[in-house]
Amino acid sequence: MSKDIGKLLQKNKKHILEDWMTRQLADATLREDLMSNEELREQSNELLNALLKNITDHTIDTQSAAFDEVNEIISGISISRARQGFTPRETGIYVFSLKDALQKSLEGEIKNDPQLLYDSSIQVNKMMDDLGIMTFETFIKGREEVILRQTSEITEISTPVIQVWEGILALPIIGTLDSARTQVVMENLLQEIVETGSTIAILDISGVPAVDSLVAQHLIKTVAATRLMGAECIISGIRPEIAQTIVHLGIDLSNIVTKASLASALKYSFGLLQIQVKKSPNKV
Amino acid sequence: MKLVLNKDVMSIEKEQDVVPFRNRVKEYAVKIGMSLVNQTKLITAASELVRNMLKYGGGGVTIIEVISQGRDNGIRLVFQDKGPGIKDISLAMKDGYSSGKSLGIGLPGAKRLVNEFDIKSTLGEGTTVSIIKWKNG
């Protein structure tokens, strides 16, 4: 961009700000409930200042270092607006209405040279489009962080270790067992074995939708680790279709005690611990 | 003559894509009325292959197709990656062989779980695996 344009815009800063504000206030998407007009003016002023300061000789490239300050302000605005409850569209319109204001100012100043007006308009447009995209990217990044946090929270809460009897732990696994999940399951289980001094752990996979070789490998590792701790590990909740699939797939679980249901696994554990469950003849 | 009735393309880039893909396969299997055992077999085979694609091929594209041949309906899944390719396919199809640290039953196991299994690989260009599970297969 030629030097003049930067200076030109700088000179008209006040007008541009006024024009931009008028446009924003006139727009139907104005959210007075979320942000007062004074705040909006302050925010707009800060952004415009940074922007015009950094439009110099050749730097219209929003990826350049000179634009870091502007990018930072834009990201800040986008994130704070996302938190305040603005929609991405409203934030987008906020940035794009500045484009209109800049355009208007250029139009007024360079009336006599269509070629220059055209060139500088293209450049200003491109710059503002980049900034608009930036607001969306930041907005989405903010959302993704929330999703990641929730994923880790779900992993945490969905692997409870339950003591079903003295010396017997049960661990119902729900959902898919991936590497990260297995790590959490294994840690919780081994820790609990130490704390309760249990000798039997039942892994219930009723809630695992599909057992492929990766899941099987994770199960085998968990069983091996449990045995190293001196406890026996039983896998329960193997549904008929899962059993058939495991056989076809060629996974060897013959070294592991497996049961169809948690109840039969519990019964088996009682046998190991030489506990008898009897029906009492008298009502308790 | 296999007729394609329905086609769906999904790209697999990260481990988080595995579960949605499996669910999509399940949806189609349920739609054509596949039995629970066959559904589970298909989904498990799909899971093996899609994990292979992620681990060795760095992700790729999957195609889910509902196909029909005569009176039989089925699901065809195609897994395409642009990874390094497989050097020795017959070795990779052997039980217990793994170039990684896994059990080495993914490929041969997947083959046993489905009705038709086809693998093509070119070194440096990528691997394409195509499987078919018939509704009553």
Automatic annotation (TrEMBL), chain A:
Classification via InterPro entries: Bact_StressResp_Reg, RsbRD_N_dom, STAS_dom, STAS_dom_sf
Task: Provide the coiled-coil residue spans.
Answer: none
Which keywords, in A-to-Z order, does the entry hold? Phosphoprotein
Domain of life of the organism in this record?
Bacteria
Instruction: Tell me where in this chain the STAS domain is found.
Output: 158-269
Q: Does the keyword Phosphoprotein apply?
A: yes
Q: Where is the signal peptide?
A: none
**Mind telling me which Gene3D superfamilies this protein's record contains?**
STAS domain (3.30.750.24)
- PANTHER family recorded for this chain? RSBT ANTAGONIST PROTEIN RSBS-RELATED, RSBT CO-ANTAGONIST PROTEIN RSBRC
Q: Under which name does UniProt file this protein?
A: RsbT co-antagonist protein RsbR
Q: Which organism is it from?
A: Flavisolibacter ginsengisoli DSM 18119
TrEMBL record, chain B:
Q: Which residues form a coiled coil?
A: none
Residue ranges constituting the Histidine kinase/HSP90-like ATPase domain according to the UniProt record: 37-137
Pfam families attached to this UniProt entry:
HATPase_c
Statement: the UniProt record of this protein carries the keyword rRNA-binding = no
Organism superkingdom: Bacteria
Recorded hits in SUPFAM superfamilies, A to Z, give: ATPase domain of HSP90 chaperone/DNA topoisomerase II/histidine kinase
What keywords does the record list, in alphabetical order? Kinase, Transferase
Q: Which GO terms describe its molecular function?
A: kinase activity
Which InterPro entries does the entry mention?
A: HATPase_C_sf, HATPase_dom
Protein's name according to its UniProt entry: Serine/threonine-protein kinase RsbT
Q: State the organism named in the record.
A: Flavisolibacter ginsengisoli DSM 18119
Taxonomy of the source species: Bacteria, Pseudomonadati, Bacteroidota, Chitinophagia, Chitinophagales
